Amino acid sequence: MRKPDIINVRSYKGRLREGRMKPWAEPSSMSLKQLSAEKNSEKVQKGEEKSRTSTDATVRSKGGSAGEDEGRK
């Protein structure tokens, strides 16, 4: 499993110190990702990397408010 590159190291270390892991490290979001990854792999079988990035986007968009989603599109 390849984690995305850490862009802001300072904030990453601060989050680790607080005890909050990154969203992809949380078990609750992992089960969501695995479910959506299975659905994506059925549609498009082009390797795990692409399905994982698309599931990351869907999980983030679900987590945000409706206004944010409309703004992104």
Overview of this protein structure:
With 73 residues, the chain is mostly helical. It has a domain of 46 residues. It has 4 helices and no strands. α2 packs across α3.
Biggest β-sheet: count, sense, barrel? none
Instruction: Give the overall average pLDDT.
Output: 55
Q: pLDDT below 50 for ≥5 consecutive residues: which ranges?
A: none
Seen as an oligomer or otherwise, the chain set is: single chain
Give the H and E element order.
HHHH
Distance between the termini: 29 Å
SS class: mainly alpha
Short description:
The protein is mostly helical and 73 residues long. Helix content is 68%, strand content 0%. Residues 1-73 are annotated as: Disordered.
